[in-house]
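User: Protein GrpE, Desulfobaculum xiamenense:
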Amino acid sequence: MTMEKDMDTVEMNETTEAANTDAATELTLTDEELRTLCAERVCPQCPEKAEMEDQRLRLLADMDNTRKRLERDKDEFRKFATEKVLADLLPVLDNLDLALKHAPTSAECKNFVLGVDMTRKAFLDALSKHALEPVGELGEEFSPEIHEAVGQEERTDMEPGRVANLLNRGYRLNGRLLRPAMVMVSKAPEA
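Assistant: Predicted structure for Protein GrpE:
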């Protein structure tokens, strides 16, 4: 009988210890931990849980929007990081164009002019690898979006409002206008 009594005492002590451990656990939980436990186990339809879920979804959406914006900014930076350098190189290209435009046509200068032309083409090819493309051609319709008119020319051989003379070629970088083409615009001769 003492053995039974001892067993009952042991069981009672274990139950008491378990109850004490549970009480100690509850006492050491923070308010946030209690809310989490409540939201997960006690009341799944609890308004507090719905509010927390809504807040979590909003934060996830904000993080996703921020990630997308940063990705767009990074792509934009990558596209136009070379803009200033390329703009600084455009006068070199203009000077090569002028050299070809005013080059003598004599046989002695033929190889020199050919070399300048090849240099210009190689330079333009290198710039086009960085998404730089020329805009503005003789005879095309004047567009203030890509042309800068510096004057008008009376022309009988073309209709009014066309590019009569191309003074400086314009350029686009990744679809954005880097520099407009400087042009003279044709106008009808005065009677």
